[in-house]
Amino acid sequence: MQKVIKSFGTNKVLDSLDLDIQKGEIVSLIGPSGSGKSTLLRCINLLEPIDDGEIWFGGIDISVPGYDPNPVRRRIGMVFQSYNLFPHMSVMENICLAPVRVLGRKANDTKAQALALLEQFGLADKAKSYPDQLSGGQQQRVAIVRALTIEPEVLLLDEITSALDPELVGEVLDAVRNLRNTGMTVVLATHEMSFAREISDTVCMLDGGVIIEKGSPESMFTNAANPRTRQFLSRVSSR
Amino acid sequence: MTEQLSKRARYERARKRKSLVIATASTLAVAIALIIAIPKMPRWDRVKKSFFNGEVLGETFPKLLDAFVLDIKIFLWSVPIILFIAMLVAVTRNSRSPALFPLRILAVVYVDVMRGVPVLLWIYLIGFGVPGLGLERPWNSPLLWGSVALVLTYATYVSEVFRAGIESVHESQRAAARSLGLSNAQTMRHVVLPQAVRRVIPPLMNDMVSLQKDVALVSLIGPIEILRQAGIDKSKFASFTPYVGAAIIFLAITIPMTRTTDWLLERERRRTSGTRVS
User: Fold this and answer.
1) Which of A46, A202, B57, B251 sits a CA distance of 20 to 30 A from A110?
2) Where are chain B's structural domains?
3) How many structural domains does chain A have?
4) What confidence tens digit (pLDDT) does each residue in A84-93 have?
5) Into which CATH architecture does domain B58-272 fall?
C-alpha cells in the first residue's frame, strides 16, 4: 500500500499511509482507538474506497476507481469485531452461502468441507444452531470458519476479540493460532498485546492515520524507538 | 422431582395460579356487566330486532357467503401482484446504482401520488376512467380496473413497509456479505431481504387485513360482492342484520389470518433465537 489517504468528511483517518505485507506474513496493527486500524482493513477489502494512493495486491492496483471489488474480496477474507453472522441462517448456511453462491461450488462438497473446519475449531455440534443460540466466542469462531471457506489468500481480522469476555478470548485466539501453520497471510487489528507479540511476524503501531513505527514483535515490545509507541505500550500493559 | 419443587418453582406456580384466577374473575365481571347492561338500554328491543334478527340472518347468510367468494377472489389475485410490485419499488428505491436514478425518481413519484389519494377515489378514477376509453370486453370490466386501482394503491403502502424493513438491516450485515464476495444483488437477495421481510411481517399483515376489508370498496363501481349483497338484502328485508352477517364473515377470515401469522412468527423466533428475557 502506498500513500493511502482516506477521510470521512474533514476527518483524515488514513494520512498517506505506507505498508508492505509479504505473502504468508502475519501483521498486527496496534494503536489507540481511532488511529485508523479498522479503516485500514476495510480499505484493503475495498469496503471503503480510498481517496488517494494505491493498494497493490498480487501485482494489480485494486484501488483504481471502478475496479470490480468482488473478485478481490473472494481472495480476501474478513472477520469483524461484532461477528456479523447472518441471524436468519443456521451456522452451516452462514458458512456455505459464499462458497455456493460466489464460487459456484456444489452444496454437498461445501458442507463436507465446512464440517471438517467446524470440527477443527471445536464447533462440530453447532452446525444446525442459529447465531443467537451461540456464545460470543462460538459466534466469532463461526465467523472465522465462514471467512476461511472461501479459501482466501489473505485474512483480515478486525479486533475480533474486543467484544468477548476474557475467558472466551482464549478460544478465539486459539483459532487464529491454528491458522499460523497454514501459511495464510493475516492482518489483524488488535488490543491483545501479548497475542500480537506471540503470533505476529511484524507489528505496526498506528497513530493519527500513519504507521509511526514498525518492527518485529521483540523489538517493538521491548525496545521501541518511538516515544509514542513506548507510551502506548506502557499504558496498555499497565492495565 | 415432581415432589421436590424448588423454592423458585413453587413461587412461580403460585404466581401463575394467582394470575389465572385474577384474569378469569375480571373477564367474567366485565362480561356479566355487558350482558346485564346492554339489554337495559331504552331502545335495545328495536336494535335487537333490526341488527340481530335470527330469521333474516338465516335467510341472507348463504347469499352473503356466495358474494364473499368474489371478495376472496379479488383479494387472492391482488396479493401476489401487490407483493411483487411493492418489492420491486422498495428495492429500486434502495438501489445505489446511478444508472437506476430515473427509476428511483419514478418510484418516489409513484408512491407519493398513489399513497396521497384515498383508495376509494382511485377506484372511481381508474375503475370508471379506463373502461371509459372504449376498450373491448373483457378489458372494460369495472371489476378488473377496480382491482387494478386496489393493487396500485396497496403496492405503495406495502413498498414502504418493505423499505423500512430493508433499511432496518444493519449496514454491518452488508459489509459481511460483501466481504465474502457476494455481489450487491446477491447480498440483497440472500442477506438483506430475508431479514427485512421477517421483521416487517406484522405491519405487512396489518396491510393485508386492511386490503381484505377494502376489497369491499370495489363494490361501489358495480361488482356484487359481500358489502353490496348485504346492502341489497338490507333493503329487501328492511333489516340491518345482513350487515352484521357480513361483519361476522369478514372476522372469520381476518382473525385466523392474524393469529396464524403470530403463531408462525413465534415459531420462527423460537427456532432461531437464544434465551428470552423475561
Assistant:
1) A46
2) 58-272
3) 1
4) 999 999 999 9
5) Orthogonal Bundle (1.10)
Interface test with A, best of B166, B171, B179, B195 (most A CBs within 10 A): B179
Question: Measured between CB atoms, does A142 come within 8 Å of chain B?
Answer: no
CA angle A46–A72–A143, rounded 5-degree value = 75
Rounded Cα gap, residues B45 and A161, in angstroms: 74
Chain A residues inside the 8 Å CB shell of B176: 78, 80, 84-86, 143
Angle at A159 between CA A197 and CA A144, to 5 degrees: 100
Residue B51: other Cβ atoms inside 10 A:
15
Question: Which tens digit of pLDDT belongs to each residue from A102-140?
Answer: 888 888 888 998 999 898 888 889 999 999 999 888 998
Provide the strand spans (E) within chain A: 2-8, 11-17, 26-30, 52-54, 56-57, 60-61, 76-79, 154-158, 185-189, 202-207, 210-215
Is A95 part of the contact surface with chain B (CB cutoff 8 Å)? no
* A87: nearest CB among B175, B183, B195: B195
CA distance A231 to A175: 30
Residue A209 buriedness (CB in 10 A; 0-12 / 13-18 / 19+): buried
| Neighbour tally for A52: CB within 10 Å | 13
Which residue in chain A is spatially nearest to B173 when comparing CA positions? A84
B195 to chain A, closest Cα gap in Å: 6
